[in-house]
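As described in the Methods, two query proteins were run sequentially through the folding procedure within a single session, without resetting any intermediate state between them. The first query and its resulting structure tokens are shown here.
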Amino acid sequence: MRVVHARGFYCAAGVLELINTSPAELVEKVLRSFENTQLIDPDVILDWDVFDAAFLNAVIVHGTPYQRAKSVSNEVLLKLAATTQLDEAIRRVGLKDTSKRAVLFTISRSETQAVQTALKVAELAGRLLDLPSDEGKTELLMVFYGIEEKQLSAVQAENREKAVKMMIMQRMAETLL
């Protein structure tokens, strides 16, 4: 599990292998029992840098006119989905019925609370894993975020994967406009 801190908010995040429950059952339990906690599809996250950018963007807009969701955790969903509509964000980045893994994240003003909540959710699901590697994700995420090959050539980056990462982060930031 990892913990990220920004502007007084702590985000505990990790990848769960769904062993003891189905995706739908886990989502229902989490929504009923835990505040500021979300479960999303790990296949829509290129790497932790992209996730951290979504968290930071969500924290930055918190309490401003650019905030679209009532909670920071829902704002993270909006940023990851690069949309301003929560229903669309859930449809795009939420768990699918066939999901075998889930990215769990919980946000709190207390690091201890964020970690404890994440561990409680992990107990419901199975075990903590690492975020799956980029193998094959780049192409899928280009489609997911509507990134065209010709756009990548305009990005100054060390390689294609880093150019895609920068374009994804740009898509998230565009939701502020």
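Immediately afterward, the second query was submitted; its sequence and tokens are:
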Amino acid sequence: MIRWCARHGVVVSLGHSDADMQATQRAIRAGATAVTHIFNGMRSLHHRDPGLLGEALTDDRLAAMVILDGVHVDPVAFRLLWRCKGPEHIVLVTDSIRHQRTRAKRVGGAFYLPKGILAGSQLTMIRAVRNAVILGGVSISDAVRMASTNPARVIGQARHTGALEVGKRADLVVFDRKFKVSMTLVSGHVGYPQSR
């Protein structure tokens, strides 16, 4: 399946899996290029059985998608990820859910199902960028890269979006030093605040 997807331009991301290291390596050879929700929904790192997490941390062919809400991934774990992958191979994601349509309850920035199962986050992308800077200690430019350039590259859209360059879509978020968004542009048109 991974080989078929890779041949047809479908990005394959590994995650929510108990895959061992050998299965993970086979998946990478077949064309998998990313890891979904690193540290979550996968076996923990063990020194004799590093599994998917060990491969994700050490193989630069894999981009690591991280939910940096302070609940799904502790800041120390993010700093470990940062040291292993650097700014080129980390993608900030939100895993945000619409809790109004689920049985999930909000507790401390995340949503949980009735039996205490972590179900999703209320994280926004600007908050993920902020957390990368404040909790992770990375530069604003690296945090923005993990929210824009890297995801565009992972999904094969880097020629069209993800950076401020001639010929690319003018998708921008303007925010201040406190990470408060004042304006967004989508394809060069103001999206927020909406004009009246």
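The helical segments are 2-7, 21-30, 51-58, 75-85, 125-134, 140-147, 149-154. We note this only descriptively and draw no conclusion about the first query from it.
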